[in-house]
Design a protein that fits this description.
The structure is a single chain. The chain has helices at 25-33, 39-43, 58-70, 73-83; strands at residues 5-11, 18-22, 48-55. By secondary structure, it is α+β, with helices and mostly antiparallel strands. It has a single domain (5-93), classed as GIY-YIG endonuclease, CATH 3.40.1440. Strands 2-1-3 form a 3-stranded antiparallel sheet, sandwiched between helices. The radius of gyration is 13 Å and the shape is globular. The protein starts with a strand and ends in a 17-residue tail after the last helix.
Amino acid sequence: MRKHYYVYIMTNASRTLYTGMTNNLVRRVYEHKQGHGSKFTAKYHITWLVYSEVYNDVRDAIRREKQIKSWRRSKKVALIEAVNPKWRDLTLDWDECLEK
């Protein structure tokens, strides 16, 4: 079975951005939503998944996460808005994510 790695961006009502990388997007987003994902996401109540990419190689995912983290906010916003212009929480489409 081939592993997948995800680079993702999450936000809150104030549009504070958090970029991360994981091998299990559903689990990691669930952790953030429960306030256990990281101190930063817990402090700022970052619970909306607004962007994600998938990779087959962990090194590619790590490179991409570092690249996005190095960008100015305006470039991150443009990346999000290119695929999610309304900043909709993408987990709203996940049946199992928050029902655990």
